[in-house]
Amino acid sequence: MAIESIDRAAKEFVLSLQEYFLFATRAALNLFSSPIYWSDIIVQCDIIGVGSVLIVVFAGFFTGGVLAIQSSATLEQFGATAVTGQFVAMSMIRELGPVLTGIMVSGRNASSMASELGSMVVTEQIDAMRALGVDPMRKLATPRVVACTVMLFFLTIVADFCGILGGAAVTVFMNDQNGTQYFSMAYQHLHFRDILQGLAKPLFFGFIIATIGCFYGMRTTGGTQGVGQSTIKAVVFASVLIIFVDLLVSIVLVSF
Amino acid sequence: MNAPLASPVESAPEAIGPVLEFRDITVSFDGPPVLKNISFSVAPGETRILLGPAGVGKSVLLKTANGLVQPDSGTVAILGETITGLPEHKLIPMRARTGMVFQEGALFDSLTVRDNVAYQLVQERTPDEEIDERVHVALRFVGLEQTFSLFPSSLSGGMRRRVAIARALIHYPELLLYDSPTGGLDPVTSTTIIELIVKQRDVYKTPSLLVTHRLQDAFTMCTHRFDEEKNVMVPLPEGETHTSTTFLMLNEGGLIFDGSLHELVHSENEFVREFLE
């Protein structure tokens, strides 16, 4: 009995994985054939990108501040508080900026995509769209995937910038250190590969957030309760996958 | 409700063969078949009413008709072209030639009535002036011109169905599919919807497949015609029925009846008799 249920669960997992990869591939390939709904892409850029700026600004600023507090306490033991700027900048740009932004945007937008598309599925709006001769993948999924991938890139830059500013605020106003030294250390020890690593990650994360959100939204079943389940799954899987892919990308990029 | 949506000549069927044909269709979803070996056809100008109790697979059959659901076996042909097994991108232009009215209307919440009705036209980049004109005509047909700028959330259930009918008609479909258009509505509103369907049938003669479990609506369609001069639905003379309106009945996934109203009421089938009683 137990083996049967494990067997069934494993098959369902593999099937879901296959369906997800097919879904994500289709969403991406739609960009290379017409029709492409540019106006929907711009609308989604506004909803996902502009709409998420505030949470990203706050998350970035406070994280930078926390990093400065924690790092300076440790660095003080070695008389190295001068490298706080370097520590904060490297941590934000290489790791925390992309991952935090990804998780914040995932919480806001993967859930919104899953619930919006899920509601459309249960009220037959997706079927109506197909019946009216419009492909929901092209009209709904592809614009969200493109917008999320592009906007997460810029949101990460905003988060990095605010994080470094947050670190500077703590360093200058709470730790009474020199602001010029902070920014100078932050800038001097930053290399191209650090920036490359920090800006490559959001491209993967943005794609993951949108494809997971749309995937779970589009396969919603079971009425309003099903919409809730899809939303939970979308946020959980997107967040876990972001951290997992962060590990993979870090392994690959650090080895270069 | 007297503005022309499309001239009868414009929407007159050109095909000589069936507009819709089911050949031995079986559909299942992770379990026993929902539809088993279903075969029937809809001829040009014909209206077929699909009867059956709730949950018997009527909506699935309707969705199979325009490829929203793919059958496990058998073939479906619309307007002479087999659609079974076609990929989604090839089905889309076929679906655009049909109109479908969903059970609850399935209007897009985020769009106004104008944008809902004009959805296909907007996708085809029809000029705004033409869109507005055609939307006004379609809404006038269903008697809801005043809802042009409203959102679906501010409409009643009956109004949503009427807007859904306008959306299905605006593109001059060659086949209409109605999924329980009067389900859950009060008798007065149901009659309004049926009157619109009868008007569409008698004025434009678009072939259609209508799903319902309400016998009263089915019989009203068979025993009434639309009087264009008086612009109302009127009863046919005593004993007469609409000859191009015929019936199908589903039970336990199988088609148990296919024929006219006369044959339906005189059927020997036990389930049909029970259903009619």
Q: Can you offer a commentary on this structure?
A:
The complex is a heterodimer of chains A (256) and B (277). Chain A is mostly helical and 256 residues long. Chain A contains eight helices and no strands. Chain A has one domain. The longest helix of chain A is centred in the middle third of the chain and has 39 residues. Helix content of chain B is 35%, strand content 24%. A six-stranded mixed β-sheet of chain B has the order 6-7-8-3-11-12, with helices on both faces. Chain B has a four-stranded antiparallel β-sheet with strand order 2-1-4-5, covered by helices on one side. Chains A and B meet through α4 of A and α3 and α5 of B.
What is this structure, in a nutshell?
The complex is a heterodimer of chains A (256) and B (277). Chain A is an all-alpha fold and 256 residues long. Chain A has helices at residues 2-29, 38-75, 84-122, 125-131, 136-174, 179-188, 192-218, 223-254.
Descriptive tags:
heterodimer, A: mainly alpha, B: 277 residues, alpha/beta, Rossmann fold, 4-stranded antiparallel beta sheet, 12 strands, 24% strand
